[in-house]
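User: My advisor, Dr. K., asked me to get a structural model of this assembly before our group meeting. I'm new to this, so sorry if the format is off. These are the inputs:
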Amino acid sequence: MIRRLDASLLILLVAFPILWLLPSGLKSYGLYVVSLWLVMSIAAMGLNLTLGYAGLTSLAQGAFLGIGAYATAILTTKAGWPLPAAFLASSALSFAVGVLLGFPALRVKHHYLAFVTLAFTVVVFLVARNEQWLTGGVFGIANIPRPVLFGSDLGAALPFYRLLLCVTLVLALAMWWLLKSPWGRAFLALRENAVRAASLGVDIRAYTLLAFAIGSAYGGAAGSLYAPLVEFIDPAPFALSASFVLLLTVVAGGAGSFFGPFVGAFFSYMLPELLRATGGWYLIIYAAVVLLIVMISPTGLLGLIERWRDHRSQAKAAAARAAAAPTLGAASGETDSLGKGATQ
Amino acid sequence: MTHVLEVSSLKKYFGGVKAVDGVSFTVEEGEILGLIGPNGCGKSTLFNCILGQLTPTEGEVKLDGRVVTGLYPAQLNRLGVSRTFQLLQVFPNLSVRENLILAGQEHKGSMIGRLFGARDAGLTAEADRMIAFFKLEHLADQKAGGLSYGQQKLLDAAMAFMAGPRLVLLDEPAGGVNLTMLANLKERLQIINRELGATFVVIEHNMDFVMSLCSRVVVMAEGKILAEGPPSAIRNDPAVIEAYLGH
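Assistant: The format is fine. Below is the predicted structure of the whole assembly, which you can bring to the meeting.
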């Protein structure tokens, strides 16, 4: 586990300069698509923590995307806040709402929890559509400004993409840090066996609420970047289907694997754009690909790699066991003490 | 004198079923107490009531003289009570070492401190010592789910000892474990009891295991305590023999 996450860090740091330079030849539409991929990867990273690591089924990530997007749109257009401040406020708001939504998760699990979060998503959508005084209703909020940071205008497609890339890197590093810490271990324990975890002193309540809140904060952060990316928001992109697509993104990419969200977001948000050339067929091809992934590997695309790695390490251990078998019996007697005296 | 554990008139009813029906007993510092009785006599329910997994219908549980009835399992664990389960309860997708680190980490510092502190909560050395003690060295980096049943049982027990508990409740530690591993397990328990002064309560059906490990045995039948005493007396108690063999 530890070693695998260290490899993740390496991949992150290698991928960053490549992703920095690679899209420089793209036109503005192409840049929009890769930018959307980054934004949705952030949202999926959050859901991957809640669902993939902590095992809490949520159909609310699209709603948090909406909360972040609307909060940022309102703060930047109506209150005149700069984007960085609106970004922090949107993430904090989503964190707080995530804590509240976490409370039902203390009582219900699995598909029941999916229903509760589904209801929440519908409520958020209805608020966005009906509370015109705040959200503009179906007319939405237009002219969401792109940021000016340290005197340089990041409004053009390429600089804004690079800003998104930097934010994505920072958030991915923060996630990596979190997952490698004892918290990451506790989240996994929550997913695998909550009763046993509690008997080992893991505070189930606190970690459940945190898993929801941190995952939601990533959703809100993504929404806060989505608003200036598209520059105009209305309720439609935050309807229930958005939460389903995000869930699919995490599952198809590999729930509980660090790069699963990035791979999944490629399938959910970039592949459809690449397939547009096929005319009316693109949705069918996209659906078939996703179906195939889930059928071949229920643990997602990156789950395939994981399975292959497990298989290899077990084969290696079996070989080591076979080699060590004759000496194991003779080795007893040396470890017949906990050795407290020697080490303390 | 205060007892490590004191259970007074504990009752747990499930509707009309009196699973535990007025049980009182004490456990003394450093003792290994056996808890035996026929299947369905309420032993595991009693454990779950003591450990906060179930809320007792009536009665009281005291730890070092302090009432702990109604505390959450995690709170009790942080007060130094730990347990093993009748059915295997390891974390299959974590390595053996990670399982043990997890078992100790919540006792190290505050939650915020753990987020920013050492990745292993400073427990790798302690985990490896526990791995060596239970003779699982060759499996340290293996996923726990890939271990044999007996090895997982050993890991399960090792996890219960990671945080240096005062009181450990073991629910059928010997169930399904082969004879070699059973001898190993018994020896490990005796060493921990002697070296760390940990107090044990052991539920077990394997009579040889109970009688040779425990200094005192409590026998339950139909939710009540039937007999209590040293193994030699329990072995020959007609009431106990009848409860086991039937009327």
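One thing worth pointing out at the meeting: Chain B touches chain A through 53 residues (CB under 8 Å).

User: Perfect, thanks a lot.
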